[in-house]
Write a structure and sequence with these properties.
- It is built from 27 helices and two strands.
- The chain is mostly helical and 593 residues long.
- The chain has a two-stranded antiparallel sheet.
- β1 (515-516) and β2 form a beta hairpin.
- α17 packs antiparallel against α18 (368-401).
- The longest helix has 34 residues, at 306-339.
- The two termini are 53 Å apart.
Length: 593
């Protein structure tokens, strides 16, 4: 009786208008196609296009580097890009629940990719903190990295860009430049040992906090706010890049820099490392295998032409990388011309390019403060949209697992706030005096080529062979009205897995443990932490396979059959089931006769 009374009470409360049931908000959708294109462009066009691709091109044979790059683009980049975007659009789910619906056996791919996004969110934003500090330092009468007269400079500091100074002094063997000392002693104040983390760099802490506050408010309302922010963050870097390109091309020595960037060396094609660099650049710059494209595609309209979008966005991404090389190497050519040195001595990659090489070139230009502001605003915006779109993808993946809970009231905003606060607190270790040591562990192991290549192999195999390449093409045809080029299907079935497997094996054979500045070995805890980052994402796939096999009823064969069957509530499955019902109803009268 007590149970019945409790049930009656609960039913009365639910019917009582004074106690309304919580309203589950809709998942949201892009207001226009442009918002989706800009959001994806903002995610895939980031710092790697500016500071990694041009350097790899120069390092790996100039113009001939485009041969392996284009091969990887059309055999791996575009097929996997289309796979992830179209699956998101078809299922209307984030990366975890998307795989749960398409192929439950590979649900671990969704969890693993989100672990990678979480780690990337913690460390990638540190670059924005550095860039903000440089930007604020640019608003001074003299750029602080252009002279040796600052409190942080040492006796061995030499202003190499001033020929009048070099004529009057003897340059010591251990001489350093003011821009390097600004980076190492003013910004980082890096300790002499990996075991010494030192104290907090409070200016960097505030810059990191500013970066997280901006990121949070870019995505706090979901795609409604993200879709509006990307109109600025995804387009303004192109204006900055255009300004820097025009300025760079007008500098003396710019032509030599461009020749150095593109001069072809066909013999480099025989080096397997060149092909490895081309493949990893595609994976890094196209944001594939980390679930972000799936999340962004899930907010599209069902009939959006995702096939055309993917091809255009991939070409835009590679084109941006190519053009960025002209802007970067024209400035480096000018710097080499001014210092009367070979450009190979001034060309750097990664943070070394953004915070040492290019600021040094800027300091030698007329109106250096103006060009410094332009450059660091571009760096901040390129990194900012990649950061907050990754944050949006992570929140989407989590909230889609429990939409009845997270899509009520302000719970999704609180989820985003919780992720932001936790990531900010974890990132504080990288804004200490020894923070760069930890940053490099994150950078080397969290989003490693091994993890991304393994995910790429499993994605292409699961969709092409388990879910079915023809069924996958049926999904796309149902959405856009026609089937994509058959070559993409054959790439996903055969070429993509083979190339990714070959690259994966080569990566394992050539793998070397991380060394700071290629000289200083890490202690045991550094390598343990690094392998934790790699394995905690990669092992999600086999562990979730075993867990799902264990909890699924039936014989082992029945369990595999169940876990390899897509969900019945997918759009095309619903249509086919309805068609079968209509056929069965049409057959009943004839059977009765």
């Amino acid at each position: 009786m007590a149970q019945h009374s409790d049930l009656d009470c609960k039913l009365r409360l639910e019917k009582d208008p004074s106690h309304p049931a919580p309203v589950v908000q809709s998942r949201g959708q892009w207001s226009s196609k442009v918002e989706f294109l800009l959001a994806v462009a903002g995610q895939i066009i980031g710092l790697g296009n500016v500071w990694r691709f041009p350097y790899l091109c120069y390092k790996n044979g100039g113009g001939v580097f485009f041969i392996p790059y284009v091969i990887f683009l059309f055999t791996c980049g575009i097929p996997l890009f289309l796979l992830e975007t179209s699956l998101g659009q078809y299922t209307k789910q984030g990366s975890i629940t998307c795989w749960r619906k398409i192929c439950p056996l590979f649900e671990g791919l969704g969890y693993g990719s989100q672990v990678v996004v979480l780690y990337s969110s913690i460390y990638y934003i540190i670059i924005l903190a550095w860039a903000f500090l440089y930007l604020f330092s640019s608003f001074s009468s003299e750029l602080p990295w252009s002279s040796c007269s600052n409190p942080w400079n040492t006796e061995t500091c030499v202003e190499f860009h001033r020929n009048d100074v070099l004529l009057n002094i003897t340059v010591p063997a251990n001489a350093t430049s003011p821009v390097r000392e600004f980076w190492e002693r003013r910004v980082l104040n890096i300790t002499g040992s990996i075991d010494e983390l030192g104290g907090m760099r409070w200016e960097l802490v505030l810059c990191l906090l500013l970066s997280w506050v901006i990121c949070y408010f870019c995505v706090w309302k979901g795609v409604q706010s993200t879709g509006k922010v990307v109109y600025f963050t995804a387009t303004f870097p192109y204006l900055m890049l255009l300004v820097l390109l025009v300025r760079g091309l007008t500098l003396p020595g710019a032509l030599d820099g461009i020749k150095f960037y593109l001069y072809p060396d066909p013999t480099r094609l025989l080096d397997p490392q060149v092909w490895m660099d081309a493949g990893t650049q595609i994976f890094y710059s196209y944001a594939i295998c980390i679930g972000c494209l799936t999340a962004l595609g899930s907010y599209n309209k069902y009939n959006n032409n995702c096939y055309r979008d993917c091809v255009c966005l991939c070409l835009l991404n590679s084109g941006t990388s190519f053009v960025a090389g002209f802007a970067i190497f024209s400035a480096l050519g000018f710097m080499a011309f001014e210092q009367q040195t070979d450009i190979s001595k001034v060309a750097e990659s990664g943070p070394g390019l953004a915070f040492i090489a290019y600021p040094r070139a800027v300091a030698m230009m007329p109106l250096p403060q103006l060009w410094a502001v332009f450059f660091f605003v571009m760096i901040i915006l390129l990194g900012l949209d990649s950061q907050f779109v990754g944050l949006e993808a992570l929140a989407t993946a989590i909230s889609d697992m429990k939409p009845s809970f997270f899509h009520v009231g302000h719970r999704r905003k609180l989820l985003l706030l919780l992720i932001s606060v936790l990531c900010f607190l974890c990132g504080l270790v990288m804004v200490t005096d020894g923070g760069l040591y930890i940053f490099q562990v994150f950078d080397y192991y969290c989003c490693s080529g091994m993890t991304l290549l393994l995910f790429a192999i499993l994605q292409s195999v699961s969709v092409s062979w388990v879910y079915g390449a023809d069924r996958f093409y049926d999904n796309i045809e149902d959405m856009i009205g026609y089937r994509p080029a058959p070559v993409i299907k054959y790439c996903l079935k055969f070429i993509t897995p083979v190339i990714c497997t070959g690259t994966f094996v080569f990566f394992l054979v050539k793998f070397t443990p991380l060394k700071f500045n290629n000289t200083m070995e890490y202690p045991w805890w550094g390598y343990t932490l690094g392998w934790w980052f790699t394995l905690s994402s990669t092992l999600n796939v086999p562990l979730w396979m075993l867990y799902n096999l264990w909890r699924t009823p039936g014989t082992l064969r029945q369990r595999f059959a169940t876990l390899c069957t897509p969900s019945g509530d997918l759009p095309l499955c619903k249509k086919r089931n309805k068609a079968r019902e209509v056929e069965s109803l049409a057959l009943k009268p004839s059977l009765a006769l």
